[in-house]
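Lab notes, practical 5.
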Amino acid sequence: MDTTATTPPTTALDSPRVVLVTGAGTGIGRATARAFARQGATVVAVGRRPGPLRETAAEAPDSIHPHPADITAEGAPEELVRAVLAAHGRLDVLVNNAGIAGGGPLGTLDRARITPLLETNLIAPVLLTQAVVPALRSSGGTVVNVTTTIGQRGWPNSSVYPATKSALETLTRCWAVELAPDVRVVAVAPGAIETPIADHTGLTPQQRQAVRAWQLAHTPLGRIGRPEEVAWAITALAAPDAAFLTGTVLPVDGGALVA
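Output from the prediction step:
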């Protein structure tokens, strides 16, 4: 192994980095869009609902550009990438954050429950990443996938959601090899984070409270995480200083994975 001290490669930018964040209307996506904007990046914030995207952009209206879109729609990934390049001329970071939870135990599953999870959590990131690869090769860019530490453990009664995220971690490792050395691919795996994702799972308030209690009991740091703490990890892995990291899946879970 060559132990000669070297300086990590850097890319000189004549304009701010352009970052595309999906699921940017709430939670981790909103915090991530704002974190990149505070670092001076131009952020394209993507989500289905215009209202929440406008709220995300309100903190930095000159830097965060709302782009309402359903990334699961036919042709949406290609159309989105064309729009970003037409408006900003480059793309440096893709954050595949959009995701939905749900499902249920075996015996309750059908195609109507499974298909939206696959389309949003797995198929859309595949097609969007495929669409951005030429732009990221040109910029020496980075893909950051947002998965979950649940996917690295057994999770009864809700297996399809973590299965989609486990698949995204496998894609992270495969793409890291496939796209090297031009594009880095990394992932952040959140644990229990205070976001609205559970509000759309069909669970009752009492069931959601029981899930939170279980999560707390299995999180050594003894609290629920904040979206800003996940956003910190995403921006750190996407930073130029992280140029020697690829294929990495970083848990941000208060120690839940190792407990």
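Observations recorded by the TA: The radius of gyration is 18 Å. Residues 1-12 have pLDDT under 50 and may be disordered.
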